[in-house]
Design brief:
The protein has about 140 residues and is α+β, with helices and mostly antiparallel strands. The protein has one domain: Bit1 (3-Layer(aba) Sandwich), CATH 3.40.1490. It has six helices and seven strands. The strands form two sheets. Strands 5-6-1-4-7 form a five-stranded mixed beta sheet, with helices on both faces. Strands 2-3 form a two-stranded antiparallel sheet. The radius of gyration is 16 Å and the shape is globular. It starts with a helix and ends with a strand. This is DUF2000 domain-containing protein. InterPro entries: DUF2000, Pep_tRNA_hydro_II_dom_sf, UCP033763. It comes from Chitinophaga oryzae.
Length: about 140
């Protein structure tokens, strides 16, 4: 087994999304979080594969990414808890109502500069890190169905 697979086996990735949101917002939030997470973690995407006819299929994630549901308050609590652990290799991506309502990235940046963390309402977060740490922080959450 190579070191990339060993690393992936000791890690876990989950999305935690406000389960009261409509299906479209949940799907959009999942997409935004996943794109950013994939950009941050080069090793999460597998190599391209080829079918019998030799047609190329781009690599996809090498690990399952469950989508868990929680309230905005619980999402914020989990985010704060994970940040408080000061773990160097944990990755946390967040998507807030500010981002969701912004028409441009410039608008999002400008609003965020004047907003305290207390005033941010998270629609979802993606977390990636040590499997035990992620399980402990998210183990009581259920899958969004």
């Amino acid at each position: 087994m190579d070191s990339t697979n060993t690393t992936i086996e000791s890690k876990k990735c989950v999305l935690i999304i406000d389960s009261t949101q409509p299906t479209g917002i949940i799907a959009n939030t999942s997409s935004v979080l996943s794109i950013t997470l994939g950009q941050q973690l080069g090793n999460i995407i597998g190599q391209d594969v080829y079918d019998k006819q030799g047609e190329k299929h781009l690599g996809i994630t090498q690990m399952p990414i469950p989508i868990l549901g929680a309230s905005p308050e619980k999402i914020k609590e989990i985010r704060r808890h994970l940040l408080s652990l000061l773990i160097e290799d944990i990755v946390i991506v967040d998507f807030s109502d500010i981002a969701q309502k912004s028409k441009t990235y410039d608008h999002y940046e400008n609003i965020m500069r004047t907003t305290t963390e207390n005033d941010i309402r998270y629609i979802g977060i993606a977390v990636y890190g040590d499997k035990k740490v992620i399980n402990k922080a998210t183990g009581n959450l259920s899958l969004i169905r």
